[in-house]
């Protein structure tokens, strides 16, 4: 029988997630039920979808902290998200200010003017005017779910189905654009899969 990732029917799930992700249990207790409910409301609670979502959060936010902001200095953000022309275009940054104004926030580390505009519209919040709103937990889970679904991570998670390594790599590329931190992503996914 597949492992029950529902925090209502499995009261031990937050502890197990915290152990596997090596993050504070208080963060999982605070944010996982919100995330699960958002995913469930959109039919994204197949075990492979949940596993890929959790592995993504493990490598993007590290500590399962949904109110986290990227810790880069303004100068570092400009170097990373403005000076690199390819990255600047991909993120839709229109000025050096955009590079640090729209730096990574939330469990997905939403980054770039284009993404703040697009996902703000999708969730009904003006993230361009108020980028810190991406760190509000209810907004953060909506952004995560919208991005996850919009990029087909749910589809690729089911193609992975615990065995298709190429599909798991695609899940990582859909969020990261490459395979940065893929080893940790895969390790977390396989550990969650081993729960049953």
Descriptive notes:
The protein is an all-alpha fold. The protein has two domains: 13-67 and 141-193, no CATH class; 74-135, Endochitinase, domain 2 (2-Layer Sandwich), CATH 3.30.20. It has helices at 13-21, 25-41, 47-60, 74-81, 85-91, 96-101, 113-123, 137-150, 153-160, 165-176, 182-193. The model has no long low-confidence stretch (mean pLDDT 96).
Give the helix tally: 11
Largest sheet: none
Mean pLDDT: 96
Helix-strand makeup class:
mainly alpha
* Principal-axes shape call: globular
Order of helices and strands: HHHHHHHHHHH
Number of strands: 0
Radius of gyration, in angstroms, nearest whole number: 16 Å
The span between the termini is 7 Å
Strand residues, percent? under 5%
What low-confidence regions span 5 or more consecutive residues with pLDDT below 50? none
State the helicity in percent bands: 55-70%
Overall number of domains? 2
Describe what is shown at a glance:
By secondary structure, the protein is an all-alpha fold. The chain has 2 domains: 13-67 and 141-193, no CATH class; 74-135, Endochitinase, domain 2 (2-Layer Sandwich).
């Amino acid at each position: 029988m597949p492992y029950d990732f529902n925090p209502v029917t499995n009261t031990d799930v937050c502890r197990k997630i915290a152990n596997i992700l090596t993050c504070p249990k208080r963060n999982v207790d605070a944010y996982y039920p919100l995330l699960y409910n958002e995913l469930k409301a959109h039919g994204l609670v197949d075990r492979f979808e949940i596993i890929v979502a959790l592995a993504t959060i493990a490598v993007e936010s590290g500590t399962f902290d949904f109110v986290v902001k990227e810790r880069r200095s303004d100068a570092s953000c400009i170097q990373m998200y403005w000076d690199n022309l390819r990255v600047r275009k991909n993120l839709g940054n229109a000025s050096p200010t955009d590079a640090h104004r729209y730096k990574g926030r939330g469990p997905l580390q939403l980054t770039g003017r284009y993404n703040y505009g697009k996902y703000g519209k999708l969730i009904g919040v003006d993230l361009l005017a108020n980028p810190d709103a991406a760190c509000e937990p209810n907004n953060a889970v909506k952004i995560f779910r919208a991005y996850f679904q919009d990029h087909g991570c749910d589809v690729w998670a089911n193609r992975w189905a615990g065995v298709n390594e190429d599909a798991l790599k695609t899940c990582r590329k859909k969020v990261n654009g490459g395979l940065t931190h893929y080893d940790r992503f895969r390790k977390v996914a396989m550990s969650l899969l081993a729960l049953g």
